[in-house]
Amino acid sequence: MLVINGTQTIAVNRLVLTNFGNLAQPVLGARFDALDAALTARHAQFLWNPVITSILAAPAFVVLMVAGALVVLLTERRKKLIGHSSRP
């Protein structure tokens, strides 16, 4: 997304940032339109309005960078401590 936004910024000579909603809409298709109704029907309204709309309005590279960092942190193996006894 940084490369795509950078290329578009250079082409139009102004800063261009793609919203995550604009990126998710073509990927999800018709399911993207039904997302609002599904979340409000099954969960509280507060989940859609401040939380999901904020994520959809954020720049796509930020959302993807945070998601990637979470994946790396959650899948990282714990390092063995060297020089510490494991005996009780």
Describe the structure in your own words.
This protein has 88 residues and is mainly alpha-helical. The protein has a domain at 19-75. It contains five helices and no strands. It is flat. The mean pLDDT is 84.
Produce the secondary structure layout:
Elements: H1 2-12, H2 20-28, H3 30-42, H4 45-57, H5 60-75
Helix fraction by DSSP (H/I, runs of at least 4): over 70%
Alpha plus pi helix count? 5
Supply Rg: 20 Å
The span between the termini is 50 Å
- Succession of helices and strands: HHHHH
How would the global form be characterised?
flat
What is the mean pLDDT? 84
pLDDT < 50 stretches: none
- Measured by DSSP, the beta-strand proportion falls in under 5%
Total strands: 0
Secondary-structure content class: mainly alpha
Instruction: Summarize the biggest pleated sheet.
Output: none
Short description:
This protein has 88 residues and is mainly α.
Throw out a few tags for this protein.
88 residues; mainly alpha; 0% strand
